[in-house]
Amino acid sequence: MKSTLIIFGLLYSMFAYSQAPETNLPFDSLWIWEEASVYFEFGESQLSTESTSILADLQKQFAHRPEVNYLIQAHTDAIGSDAANIRLSVDRAQEVAAWLRAQGIDSTHIRIESFGESRPQASNDTETGRQYNRRASIRVQELRSMFWMEGKVVDLGTGVGLPAEVLIRSREKLDSTTTNDMGVFRIPVPNNTVIGIEAYAPGYFFGNEMLKTDHRKPLDFQIKLPRVKVGEVIPLHHFYFVGDQDILLPRSEPELYRLLRFMQINPDLPIEIAGHINLPDQEPVGLSTWNYLLSVRRAKRIYNYLVAQGIHPDRLSYIGFGNWNMRFPNASTEQQQEMNRRVEIRVPVKGEILSSQDTLMPDADFLKRRLQEWKD
């Protein structure tokens, strides 16, 4: 099944800042969940075994959502008369609709459009192209309540607006926009939904906020980005590992993307990645111990991800600090222990001797010097 990119308000009309409505009233926008296509033999409208399998997979995803609607758009190749191809595309759309009704989908949630040969997606000059044109696309969609949200991305120190990239996430959708010259952005968001807002600007560390949207409380807020400073340590708060392993949990994926996007927007910036573990009320672990090496492996996991995504290894280094630099040496709560079990990044000073990328275990004196540099 070929999925489309899931985005907010795919069919809404965008307005310039000067055209912003005076009120913050919600409006309905078409929310596209999924799209798939099935293909037909020449002159035929019957569904193939492969096509019914595709439809079954699609219907299964939304069996628990009876409120969604199914838009069927049917097409043909260019062989034959216009009138005959219109009739054939109607038959193909009806065949798909009948299959959906047989699965218990109410007719009021099914709409068909038939285009004959008028909307080819490939050239009709070849058999391969004609095969692609003998199709029906099925779009699963829903009207959702949206409203316009405004915000501003600013320099943390000066409050001056920044040209920035803004990303809006929910559990289901993704959208992005950019600020204007004053750092202002405006974007439609779904009402009554938890969303994450991320901002990226060259020369700045990224920022992100989580909130629940409510059109009755207009969202007009600022995302404050700290300027990149040499030697400054930045904690990465949302890396979650499997217990006692260096395997990242799926909920860490947004934080991985944030770090990657930060490196892409700042293409000349080097960073060092440090891993830490939680062993409160204990002496510093030895460099040959399993616990120390776990902190290194966790840092290297992030390093490997960035390299795999195209960040040059010369811009990256990694190191582990075991339990040598816990935020809470006597941690007693889960929150304190989680803050000990962390990954951080730091922009090194020019000419600084960084951790080795060839070995997991530096010597103790080197590690103490590196740790002091991180603390300073």
Give a brief rundown of this model.
The protein has 7 helices and 14 strands.
Commentary on this structure:
The structure is a single chain. Helix content is 24%, strand content 26%. The chain is built from seven helices and 14 strands. It has helices spanning 49-61, 82-102, 127-133, 253-265, 290-308, 334-340, 364-375; strands spanning 27-39, 69-74, 110-114, 135-155, 165-169, 174-178, 184-190, 194-200, 207-212, 220-225, 233-236, 271-275, 316-320, 343-346. The strands form three sheets. Strands 1, 2, 3, 4, 7 and 10 form a six-stranded mixed β-sheet that branches. The chain has a four-stranded antiparallel β-sheet with strand order 6-5-8-9, covered by helices on one side. Strands 11-14-12-13 form a four-stranded mixed β-sheet. The chain is elongated. The two termini are 53 Å apart.
What descriptors fit this protein?
376 residues; alpha+beta; 60s Ribosomal Protein L30, Chain: A; Immunoglobulin-like; 6-stranded mixed sheet; 7 helices; disordered N terminus
